[in-house]
Design a protein that fits this description.
The complex is a heterodimer of chains A (208) and B (392).
Chain A: H1 13-16, E1 56-58, H2 68-72, E2 78-85, E3 88-89, E4 94-98, H3 107-111, E5 117-119, H4 131-135, E6 138-139, H5 144-153, E7 161-167, E8 172-177, E9 182-190, H6 204-207
Antiparallel strand pairs in A: 1-5, 2-3, 2-4, 2-9, 4-6, 7-8, 8-9
Chain B: H1 5-14, E1 20-21, E2 26-31, E3 42-48, E4 51-58, H2 66-70, H3 79-82, H4 91-105, H5 111-140, H6 143-164, E5 173-174, E6 177-178, H7 185-210, H8 213-219, H9 227-233, H10 238-241, H11 249-252, H12 273-297, E7 322-329, E8 334-341, E9 349-353, H13 356-360, H14 362-368, H15 375-383, H16 387-391
Antiparallel strand pairs in B: 1-2, 2-3, 3-4, 5-6, 7-8, 8-9
Helix pairs in contact in B: 5-6, 5-12, 5-15, 6-7, 7-12, 12-15
Classes of the chains: A alpha+beta (208), B alpha+beta (392).
């Protein structure tokens, strides 16, 4: 096989070469009289892009629990969770997102067939390294309108929940939102299949 | 007179040196991975005084097993993984993987998607070159220019943020096009402003870095690479252009919109660190020129990704059996991906050809021999080594 000859447009050498100079480096001094470009974070506010890929939001009524988000997730951060709100079990499971694993690729938002899963531009993951603050970043996202309301009050791109309380015995979860509201529900189980009702515990005497 | 190892160590400790002496004159020095110049990469240097006698590259600190992990995840999900192979320009691994998958399926990209992909690749090149100027000027001791480069790169990052939704890991190019459309005309205007702004600032970089006598004293005649040696080792990109070989993937194997664009390829014969730096400096200028041409062309109308019902169900997205190789010109060199599919919803094999493995291990070991210890960071930076793509 004959190789095809390609013509490259080569730049003339005179354009590429530079001459060493002793005086020109001093021209950088003119920047001493210009304003700095740096921003004093956190004292100055930064502007985030409108569609910044931040934390998730979830419309619980729209979510059909299809687990597409769990299948596409590259970090396997999504776990389907069965919930009970005000004593009524949700018909379908909802995704629980662990931000310890999440890569913020938002493929889960792309695949959501009903548009229930969305994202907001909040992105701050920093904490003061308190135990309860670290537990924050594993949640079932709340309604986007609710997050937007909180963002209007606190425009600092932080997580919309202040504290998450989890009772291990009753499996009851309470989200303390930043504007003071408390949002309570119960976790019944994990997985795509609905949780089985708890079996009565057999005592040793019955076996005999 | 024979001196025992323990006595040498004792003598070194007494003199306040924390070194590993080999014999009376030579000692072993571990360079990196904490050192700023090496970027998660380590070199074991055998030193005689301040001269390097032997250098042994010691990679592997960033090994995450990308190629194996890619076999376990659905097609689209791999984008979020593979872009971590090259941190300064993550759009390149995204683009090669997507191009290879497009070729297997046989998709014709819409014109708008091609335009956006070309623009994103060129923006990534400019931002990677600014990042490189930052690194180089830090190693030369011209910290001012490095700070400027970081500040100008920030403008491109803001543009990326508006377009893709993220600053560093964009996760933007997917098989079949791109994930989002251009937000609005204001974005295009802002890109034009940024290109003009950076172009106006290039003379400042020349004054401080590329025309500075200190740069010439530090880089001229250091780390000379032979043309024959470079070709035998498979070096690509600006490094081989600095040895006198005019090779550029954008011209040799054109992809996307590059056949329509006009740009020059800088070639120098010297093969030393200075030639490599000057070639990169001229390429930055050419990339800005390409961006100007693209903006003049304007994004064509039409869809920004392939209109295929397959793309609606991403977890069950299947690619027909076949294989394809795609490569692009990154700032480091020829970046390629070989993708094999056996018809499932996951790739059978993804092989990445990183440019840094060619010039980052054996070539580096050769170039460092005889160099002074202060030249080691300069040679490393002039090669523009990218450790994650060596380790993969």
């Amino acid at each position: 096989m004959k190789m095809e000859e390609i013509e490259f447009k080569v730049a003339p050498e005179s354009k590429i070469r530079k001459k060493p100079s002793y005086i020109k480096p001093w021209l950088g001094l003119k920047y001493l009289f210009k304003k700095p470009v740096t921003i004093k974070i956190p004292y100055e506010k930064t502007q985030i892009a409108e569609k910044y890929r931040g934390f998730h939001s979830l419309d619980w009524k729209k979510c059909v629990g299809c687990n597409f988000c769990g299948q596409i997730c590259p970090a396997r951060a999504i776990e389907m969770t069965w919930l009970e709100v005000d004593g009524r079990m949700e018909k379908r499971p909802h995704p629980k997102i662990d931000y310890g694993r999440c890569t913020f690729c938002q493929f889960c938002v792309d695949v959501c067939p009903t548009g229930a899963l969305g994202f907001v531009s909040n992105y701050m993951l920093t904490t003061e390294w308190k135990e309860e603050e670290i537990q924050l970043y594993d949640w079932v996202p709340i309604h986007p309108d609710r997050i937007r309301e909180i963002n209007e009050k606190f425009p600092d791109y932080r997580f919309p929940v202040e504290k998450i309380e989890f009772d291990r015995e009753t499996k009851e979860v309470a989200y303390h939102l930043r504007d003071g509201e408390i949002f309570k529900f119960r976790i019944l189980g994990y997985g795509i299949r609905p949780p089985k009702p708890a079996k009565p515990v057999k005592t040793g005497e019955e076996k005999k | 007179m024979m001196v025992s190892q323990s006595e040498l160590v004792k003598e070194a400790r007494e003199n306040g040196m924390d070194l590993l002496p080999l014999d009376k004159d030579t000692y072993e020095l571990f360079f990196g991975p904490q050192h700023m110049a090496t970027e998660n990469f380590s070199i074991i240097l055998k030193m005689d005084g301040h001269r390097v006698v032997k250098a042994i590259a010691n990679p592997g600190f960033l090994h995450r097993g990308f190629e194996k992990l890619a076999e376990l995840r659905p097609w689209h999900t791999n984008i979020a993984l593979l872009l971590r192979i090259c941190v300064p320009e993550p759009d390149v691994p995204e683009a090669i993987y997507s191009m290879a998958v497009d070729e297997i399926i046989g998709w014709e990209l819409p014109e708008r998607a091609q335009w956006i992909r070309t623009t994103v690749l060129e923006m990534a090149r400019v931002s990677a070159y600014l990042f490189w100027i930052m690194g180089l000027s830090f190693k030369l001791g011209v910290y001012t220019a490095g700070q400027w480069a970081a500040a100008y790169r920030e403008r491109l990052m803001a543009l990326f943020e508006q377009l893709t939704g993220a600053r560093v890991y964009h996760i933007y190019t997917i098989p079949g096009g791109v994930r989002r459309d251009i937000p609005n005309d204001a974005w295009l205007r802002r890109l034009r402003d940024t290109v003009e702004y950076i172009k106006g600032k290039l003379p400042d970089f020349d004054h401080l870095v590329f025309e500075n006598y200190i740069t010439f004293r530090r880089m001229e005649g250091i780390g000379v690479m032979d043309k024959k040696f470079a070709l035998a080792e498979g070096v690509t990109g600006p490094n081989i252009r600095a040895t006198g070989v005019p090779y550029d993937v954008r011209r040799a194997d054109p992809y996307l919109l590059y056949p329509e664009l006009d740009f020059e390829i800088p070639v120098l014969e010297d093969g030393d660190a200075l030639a490599r730096a000057l070639v990169r400096r001229y390429e930055l200028e050419q990339d800005l020129y390409i961006l100007e041409q693209l903006l003049e062309m304007g994004p064509p109308d039409g869809p920004y990704k392939v209109q295929d019902p397959k793309l609606k169900n991403l977890p069950r997205f299947k690619v027909p059996a076949g294989d394809a190789f795609a490569h692009v010109e990154s700032t480091k060199g020829d970046f390629g991906a070989y993708v094999v599919s056996d018809g499932r919803n996951k790739p059978y094999r993804v092989q990445i050809r990183g440019p840094s493995i060619a010039h980052g291990i054996r070539v580096l070991e050769q170039l460092l021999v005889g160099a002074r210890i202060a030249d080691v960071p300069v040679i490393l930076m002039s090669l523009d080594n990218c450790p994650p793509d060596i380790d993969r």
